[in-house]
Amino acid sequence: MENIKLSFPEQAGVPSQALSDFLSRLEARRIPLHGFVLMRDEKIAAEGYCPPFSENSLHRMYSASKSFVSAAIGILISQGKLRLTDRPADLLPDKAEGCTDPNILGATIRDLLRMAGPHAFSPYQEEGVTDWVSSFFHPKKPTRMPGQMFIYDTSNTVTLTAIVERITGKCLLDFLRDCGLAEAGFSPNAYCIQTPCGVSWAGSGILCTTRDLALFGSICMNGGRWHGKAIMDPDYLAEATSRQISSLVNSDHPFFQYGYGYQFWQFRYGFACYGMGAQLALCVPEKGVVLAITADTQALPSGIDAVLDAACSLFSEIADSPLDRAPEAEKAFLEKAASLRIPLPVGDTEIPDSFTFFGKTFRFQENPMGLKWMRVQKQDNAVVWEYENASGAHSLTLGLGDYVKQLFPELYDGKRISSKDTQYRCMGTACFPLPNELDMLLYIVDDYLGSLKASFYFEDNHVCVLMKKTAEWFLEEYDGLAFGIAD
């Protein structure tokens, strides 16, 4: 997409100062931004990335993935291979075999698209479930009448994805690429994590670049066209990106209480693809603008508010026509965008003279994390946390004043859920908020995103360790409180 990048933001009516202000607002709220791309009229007006992320980095989109499923459904409808009134139970008869529940049997494609399916929960999350698609038709909890009320349930999207892949014989992203996304410039190496039964987990698991997300949003906003070429059906998209059901009661954020379409959220200025951790494609048809954002705000309860507030402030500054070039403001923005960094924890990065606990081994009392012992070692511009838990002896290197990239020592899910076969890429840092306290901040920056925070409080021959993880389905053994005594 380099060939569609504008020379300066004002060409698109976007003040460079407004872009600097947007980044400053995120910085002031300590948002772990990973990247952003602002597009207008199919051209990139501005972008920026925080290391280790770049314009080529594949990034987990979490529930922003759901909108891609909607697009695929729309293409199949335009090809005459599917109807909104079709019933998943008829399209996946092997998965539905034995189902007698009228609520499940009567649910339609449109019901699932609007998050008005038969479940008030996600059946695939029930203990012991391995076939996520079959679980939709054979839940262990009562169902509800479909089509009436919005209740956010990713099993709807799992089932829709299975239908797409059953009809096409292709994985979801390959189908979309073949239908025009590839020609538009969508990354050829983008992929989707699979469910345990081998279906694309497109309710949460697409990994593509921030540019790809902006490109997808732009196509959807422009009636399914990219540079004049039709990729998706405009009539379907007009429905999909408009309010089809109320989200007032069951949306946990006021920004998204404007309704829900077909796997697209409505918001004050238009529609959005929205995923956990602030994965966003905010589409503003009135201005012809798409703002794609990738980040990890999972550990910040108010983080999504800060991101959306900053985005709306930026939208309000965008003019209706091109602006004169503003060289000084442009230079300041480019410098700011080039210097983006994920925030560091607050504290001293110089080792206090009074910190005398390096090399000491502390043995723990019984604790929920299963920690057996730990020690802290000093290294050039870093500290090393050595420890042993139920999976063995490990170490993590934590930069002082910077992040150190490494592999997290535990084995977790790979590209298919429930295959504990990979170490996640991570980056860790530390600081001394007090002379006898060491704080750790670690981000997982892989196919799965998450964070781990820890405080180590040392006094005499004791250490108190408090750890908190914010991650979906992993880092479970790094959450809790432990007390240790030095040998």
TrEMBL record:
* InterPro entries for this protein: Beta-lactam-related, Beta-lactam/transpept-like, Diverse_Enzym_Activities
Q: Which UniProt keywords apply?
A: Hydrolase
Please give the Gene Ontology molecular function terms for this protein: hydrolase activity
Q: Does the keyword RNA-binding apply?
A: no
Tell me where in this chain the Beta-lactamase-related domain is found.
Answer: 28-299
Q: Which domain of life is it from?
A: Bacteria
Is Hydrolase found in the keyword set? Answer: yes
Q: What is the protein's name according to its record?
A: Serine hydrolase
Name the source organism: Candidatus Gallacutalibacter pullicola
Q: What is the lineage of its organism?
A: Bacteria, Bacillati, Bacillota, Clostridia, Eubacteriales
